[in-house]
Amino acid sequence: MSRRRLLSTRRVIPLDRLDEYLGLWKEVQRAATQAGARAWLFRAREREDHLVEFIEFGDAPGALESEDLARSRAVLDDTFGAGQSEEWEGVE
Predict the structure, then answer these.
(1) Can you list the residues of the chain whose pLDDT is less than 50?
(2) Which of 16, 29, 67, 75 is the most buried (most CB within 10 A)?
(3) Beta bridge mates, 40
């Protein structure tokens, strides 16, 4: 049985650059899916410039290290800053 694992990253994105960010995030989602992971994006209800990215990779333990996903995440980091990332494990 695989262990549930999640990477969360918080970012503040200037609203005038949101379309650019969303385009880069779609590349992260695509790469995550190809690596066997799942990716979601949420925005704060009260502060539209605060976003949280989630990559769930428990079923694909090497997904974060896949070349395509690592590259797409690096482009996002280089363009908008590294954000605050934390890795989580499911509690069974």
Answers:
(1) none
(2) 29
(3) 54
Asked if 6 and 92 count as a contact pair (C-beta separation under 8 A), the reply is no
- 21: three-class secondary structure by DSSP: helix
Calpha distance 67→18 (Å, rounded): 25
CA distance 43 to 91: 25
Angle at the Cα of 29 from the Cα atoms of 62 and 57, rounded to 5 degrees: 30
Q: Dig out the tokens for 41 from the structure.
A: 């994006």
- Helix, strand, coil: what percent of the chain each, to 5? 40, 30, 30
Positive or negative torsion for Cα 45, 20, 85, 73 = positive
Which residue type, as a one-letter code, is found at position 38?
A: R
